[in-house]
Amino acid sequence: MAISRFLLLAALFLTLLGMPAKGARPVVVLDPGHGGHDRGATWGGVSEKTVTLSIARRVERHLKVRGFTTAMTRRSDKFRSLDGRAAVANRYKRSVFVSIHCNADPRRKARGIETYYLGARGRRLASSIHRSLDTRTSTPNRGLKCRHFAVLRKTCCPAALVECGFISSASERRLLTTAAYQDRVARAIADGIARSVNG
Predict the structure, then answer these.
(1) Do the Cβ atoms of 62 and 187 come closer than 8 Å?
(2) Which of 85, 89, 138, 195 has the fewest CB atoms within 10 Å of its CB?
(3) Residue-wise pLDDT tens digits, 8-25
(4) Is residue 197 helix, strand or coil?
(5) What are the E-state strand segments in 52-197?
């Protein structure tokens, strides 16, 4: 009884200090791409910034149901710099960072999902998310790719950047603007994050 009480007090003390107790889950920081004056890719009257925010909110809901603590780099249509986005993740002693985007191709022919990472820890996170997306969506699998994107380079935690589909493709744009498909994508991302974190 005394040992259990000690462990409980120790966990509470670490929490108050902002330090995770052993085995505690990381904070999941979701980064809806673009925002404010930065509309991102815009095709057929649909802006990337709107789709990414909607998907990110859905990912957050699915993660909270699973008991995760979450944070977002933006919760409304506002601009945040790349440094500011990374800074949100770097506030926490332990976190993972997932940036959510939609792709575009001037030829309008490309379709599919792709996921980016930097470093071994980022690859594990990105791979788990990508496998989950590939399983849950019927769009082409464009693979896992290593890139030195600023939000991946400037975060101190495992980080991934997800391209949820091509907003320049008429068929994928129609899907990406529906609540049902956004939720399918969001659930897949949340599942991938949970699988990576829970090991």
Answers:
(1) yes
(2) 138
(3) 444 444 444 444 444 589
(4) helix
(5) 70-72, 95-103, 113-117, 141-146, 159-166
